[in-house]
# Entry
Amino acid sequence: MVKRKDVLLLAVFLGGFSGLAVAVGRLGADLAPAILASLVVTVVAVLGACALRWLQRQFADQNEQAMATYHQLESLVWLSNALSVRQPLPAMRTWAISPDFAATLFSLLRGMNWPVRILELGGGVSTVIAGYCIREQGGHIVSLDHDADYAERTRRTLEQHGLSDLATVLHAPLIETPVDGQSWCWYDLRDVPDDRPFDLLIVDGPPAATQALARYPALPMLLDRLAPDAVVLVDDAHRADDRATIARWLETSGEFTMEDVATEKGAAILRRMRRSEIGKVDATTRTDGAEALQRSGRSRRKLRTGT
# Structure
């Protein structure tokens, strides 16, 4: 992609060249050819330098994309072997989670105490991954989706993989919900069972387009339903809204520490501290992870824009 500053530079140079050409034309027939020849050589050199710079950027972008794709394929192959899947896994990336996030989820679940009770905001591929993880160790998934058609699609996918008995997929439409004195479009939680606390909360919804900080209500609305040592796994943590959401959670709750995970879309793992630990971890330590996310997000924007 040609950068705006390159176009402006070229326009200024060509404008200057046109002015010089007019001036040279007034110098006389003897000097004009030599000066014009020098100017043409200069123009060709500048255009060649601009073209070379553009090609170098294109090569760097393609190399970055190729490495990212290779990393995702590597994660997908590893994950398929680790899970011993019965059917091909659903399509990943774009709107769905990426393979490296799925691998992060797998590794996180394998390190938790069993059985694991999972609450998922926005299901799909992650529901299938979690289902395979708890198939032998025990546990259950409650997955919420604001879209009824997508919820039904997730149910069919679970059935194809023989995991239906391990997950309850609920259609939970977004309704107006007051949170911290503001009105939010949030999942209707009336059908979410509250007989036992959840050990893992996966935050991958609602869509960012719903409203600013669309996922912020997750912790205020569900904190009382989480186990004392619960873990919160957040996807899309490189997005500005989600980084701001995480920072706000850490500031207001005072009960979580955060680990930044380098995945394609960014991931964050928040671990709830036991009451005996809260006083031992100061606010600076708790917010270090959020600041790291912000720095990571800025670096990724600079890498994409080349600025």
